[in-house]
């Protein structure tokens, strides 16, 4: 029996690796598939004992900046987010590549190819190239764990932030992981370095030059990284497999007895010598990237398209997550004959929980809005996005966090009446407040409905940065007239009065806020279970 | 030894507890494990599945290939059919017959049973009834684990040890109910 192995999700392996590598603080805003990293650290008794800070941040930008501050003070910090979260944090991230870091700073970012829970499938490795910082892309849970030690060391050695890139599959898959001896945290060690950290043009130019000068060293470090390895094999066919693409390539090779050379890539910038060797030895190379064909495109211009197979010539699909079957087919294997899914099997889309307050809120909105000729409702991201589906069909947009309020404002500026939007409490705190301020400053006629269920429900019920009376105070503080900040309780028995409140505020020619306040029933149930367990 | 298992159900039905028990037992057998789960949006009453792979050799992919699943273990009959393209030619379907109806176009049970009948020798289980006999309708998932146990490649005693480890914090009564539920499923499969 082997008790030294822990069964961990990829996300948890990142968390455990960070704890064991001397982490002092994690900063994050929830987002599938990255949420479990921070949750694991929050639950970890050793993390608590060693004082690792781990509370949720208001959004990804505040999280990133706090992590940079901790690094400035000499300690190791981790910042976690989903891929689109990096868009929010991009300003801080890009400029942190120019300042550089002091204590190790690792950005764990989880991409979502196939969009299991996301608006797009953007590839964070592009951000790595954009900022010119090292990116690690391990292929297994064990590698993720080991790579966290490597990431912090690398970050401190080259004094740059390091990206740990994952995708949904690895983040949400479990495997046995063997732990290493843990390291002490760094001591507090803030140094005055305004030449690096004050990014006025004269400093920034020097720092940018320094970043450019570092690039050959980063490439050399990739050549010797344990994450970049040629795999035993020969013949004219080659595979260059990135991240979890390696898993599918290995699985296909084994299952179908395919003879080929293989180069496994898990650290960027690319190890140029290893890549050159593969392309020189092979007449054809299949590029297996989980995400965009970022490097395939470069190979096509560098080595010539004739040799290169991948997502850009249809050998692999251009979009979506890879599988062993897709990689096997790309290697010429005939697809297996399998049963088909019977026609009677209809889709089973997700839905709002029975008894969820969002249901009663949408019932009220639908009645009040349909009294108007135009009944557009701008919305946002959270459980309430499910209001877009039948039977409600109540919302008409969901673009990026915070966009409900600002899109409603823009539409109101264009003349749309009423201009109504729905946004969750956590999303409002994340990036809705500034949009509301724009509307107040402009006296735009919009009605902002805040669906306040006192939690970040969509991602599993994390603490919300602003809910309840705090929301009211924020709206007052931003300048919304108190008479037009209305609170309703979304329950069946209040339907009539809720409709009448909404009707009044839709008609008001200014900024109004209606807060629909009722706790998520999943959170309530979870609290009850916890109370029962602790009573035992 | 290598087993590819697809666990299927609807968000909230407890397939991750089934996975956790098998994982625990496999880990203590010193086997390699890869178990992919679904988190996020689909967990809200949508179709969910978990790919579970155990082997005494190195495993690479977290996902099971088409036509290579040794077992589809489902806690919901319609969901068992959704993943048939994964079933190996000699693979088995073990499913609960308790429908979870949260959409308007749910097909008639006779049609579902007819399709299940085409999969060779499916093990069809009235899981909720057996779970109630064992002491709690909530133990349906452990009935299904019992029914699927003979096809997992792991000894039932090891799976029972996994149940004890997993439910131990909830008190002896919960453990007992779940073990009884497991045995009822196992007995049905073995006869
Ligand atoms: C930039 C960005 N960060 C994180 C997410 C993931 N995400 C989607 S919705 C959501 C939270 C929703 O919480 P809330 O607004 O309170 O609505 P609820 O789900 O509670 O109804 C999160 C964290 C995202 N889509 N985009
Ligand atoms: S998790 Fe909470 S907010 Fe989300 S649908 Fe269920 S009850 Fe509603």
Reported by name, the CATH topology of chain B is: Pyruvate-ferredoxin Oxidoreductase, domain 3
Average pLDDT reading of chain B: 95
Tally the beta strands of chain B. Answer: 6
- The Cα radius of gyration of chain B reads 15 Å
- Report the top-level CATH class of the largest domain in chain A: Alpha Beta
CATH superfamily of the largest domain in chain A: Thiamin diphosphate (ThDP)-binding fold, Pyr/PP domains
Distinct ligands, ions and cofactors found in the model: thiamine diphosphate, iron/sulfur cluster
Estimate what percentage of residues of chain B fall within beta strands.
15-25%
Note down, in words, how this protein is organized.
The complex is a heterodimer of chains A (536) and B (191). Chain A is α/β, with parallel strands linked by helices. Helix content of chain A is 43%, strand content 16%. In chain A, helix 4 (60-72) runs parallel beside helix 5 (83-99). The two termini of chain A are 31 Å apart. Chain A has helices at 10-20, 35-43, 45-49, 60-72, 83-99, 125-131, 141-158, 168-171, 194-197, 201-223, 245-256, 272-281, 294-303, 324-330, 357-369, 403-414, 425-442, 469-478, 495-507, 521-535, and strands at 5-9, 23-28, 76-82, 105-111, 135-136, 162-167, 173-178, 229-231, 237-242, 261-265, 267-268, 284-288, 308-309, 377-378, 420-424, 446-452, 485-488, 511-517. By secondary structure, chain B is α/β, with parallel strands linked by helices. Chain B is built from seven helices and six strands. Chain B has helices at residues 15-28, 77-82, 109-117, 127-134, 140-148, 156-167, 172-190; strands at 2-10, 32-36, 47-55, 69-74, 87-96, 123-125. A six-stranded mixed beta sheet of chain B has the order 2-3-1-4-5-6. Chains A and B meet through strand 1, strand 7, helix 11 and helix 14 of A and helix 1, strand 2, helix 2 and helix 3 of B. The complex binds thiamine diphosphate (TPP) and iron/sulfur cluster.
């Amino acid at each position: 029996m082997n008790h030294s192995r822990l069964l961990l999700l990829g996300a948890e392996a990142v968390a455990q690796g960070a704890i064991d590598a001397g982490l002092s603080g994690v900063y994050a805003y929830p987002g599938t598939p990255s949420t479990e990293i921070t949750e694991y650290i929050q639950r970890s008794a050793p993390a608590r004992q060693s004082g690792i800070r781990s509370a949720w941040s208001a959004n990804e930008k505040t999280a990133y900046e706090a992590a940079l501050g901790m690094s400035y003070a000499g300690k190791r910090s981790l910042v976690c987010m989903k891929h689109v979260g990096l868009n929010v944090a991009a300003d801080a991230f890009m400029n942190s590549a120019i300042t550089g870091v002091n204590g190790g700073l690792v950005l764990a970012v989880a991409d979502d190819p196939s969009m299991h829970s996301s608006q797009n499938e953007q590839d964070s490795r592009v951000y790595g190239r954009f900022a010119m910082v090292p990116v690690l892309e391990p292929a297994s849970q064990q590698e993720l764990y080991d790579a966290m030690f490597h990431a912090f060391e690398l970050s401190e050695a080259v004094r740059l932030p390091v990206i740990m890139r994952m995708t949904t599959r690895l983040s949400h898959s479990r495997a046995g992981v063997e732990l290493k001896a843990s390291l002490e945290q760094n001591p507090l060690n803030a140094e005055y370095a305004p030449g690096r950290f004050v990014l006025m043009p004269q400093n920034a130019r020097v720092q940018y030059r320094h970043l450019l000068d570092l690039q050959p060293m980063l490439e050399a470090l990739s050549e010797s990284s344990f994450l970049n390895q040629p795999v035993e094999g020969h013949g004219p066919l080659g595979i260059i497999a990135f991240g979890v693409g390696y898993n599918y390539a290995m699985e296909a090779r084994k299952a179908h007895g395919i003879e080929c050379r293989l180069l496994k890539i898990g650290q960027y910038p690319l190890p140029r010598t290893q890549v050159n060797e593969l392309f020189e030895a092979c007449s054809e190379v299949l590029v297996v990237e989980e995400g965009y064909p970022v490097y395939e495109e470069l190979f096509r211009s560098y080595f010539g398209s004739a040799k290169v197979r991948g997502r850009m010539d249809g050998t692999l699909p251009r979009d979506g997550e890879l599988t062993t079957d897709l990689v096997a087919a790309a290697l010429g294997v005939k697809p297996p004959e399998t049963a088909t899914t019977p026609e009677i099997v209809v889709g089973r889309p997700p839905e709002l929980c029975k008894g969820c307050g969002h249901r009663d809120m949408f019932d009220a909105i639908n009645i009040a809005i349909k009294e108007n000729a135009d009944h557009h409702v701008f919305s946002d991201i959270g459980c309430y996005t499910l209001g877009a589906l039948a039977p409600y069909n109540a919302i008409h947009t969901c673009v990026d966090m915070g966009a409900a309020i600002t899109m409603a404002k823009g539409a109101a500026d264009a003349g749309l009446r009423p201009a109504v939007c729905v946004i969750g409490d956590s999303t409002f705190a994340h990036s809705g407040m500034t949009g509301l301020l724009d509307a107040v400053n402009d006296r735009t006629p919009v009605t902002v409905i805040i669906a306040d269920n006192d939690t970040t429900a969509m991602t599993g019920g994390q603490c919300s940065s602003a809910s309840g009376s705090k929301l009211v105070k924020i709206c007052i503080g931003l300048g919304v007239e108190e008479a037009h900040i209305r609170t309703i309780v979304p329950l069946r028995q209040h339907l009539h009065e809720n409709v009448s409140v909404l009707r009044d505020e839709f008609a008001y020619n200014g900024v109004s806020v209606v807060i629909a306040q009722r706790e998520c029933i999943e959170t309530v149930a979870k609290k009850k279970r916890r109370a029962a367990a602790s009573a035992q | 030894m290598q087993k590819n298992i697809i666990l299927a159900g609807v968000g909230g039905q407890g397939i991750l507890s089934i996975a956790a028990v098998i994982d625990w037992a496999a880990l203590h057998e010193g086997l390699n494990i890869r178990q992919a789960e679904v988190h996020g949006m689909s967990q809200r009453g949508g179709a969910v599945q978990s790919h579970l792979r155990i082997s005494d050799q190195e495993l690479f992919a977290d996902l099971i290939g088409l036509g290579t699943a040794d077992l589809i273990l489902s806690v919901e009959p319609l969901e068992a059919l959704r993943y048939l393209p994964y079933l190996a030619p000699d693979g088995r379907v073990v499913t609960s017959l308790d429908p979870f109806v949260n959409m308007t176009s749910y097909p008639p049970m006779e049609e579902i049973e007819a399709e299940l009948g085409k999969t060779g020798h499916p093990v069809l289980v009235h899981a909720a009834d057996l779970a109630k006999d064992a002491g709690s309708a909530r133990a349906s998932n452990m009935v299904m684990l019992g029914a699927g146990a003979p096809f997992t490649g792991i000894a039932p005693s090891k799976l029972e040890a996994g149940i004890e480890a997993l439910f131990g914090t909830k008190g002896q009564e919960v453990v007992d109910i779940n073990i009884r539920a497991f045995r009822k499923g196992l007995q049905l499969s073995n006869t």
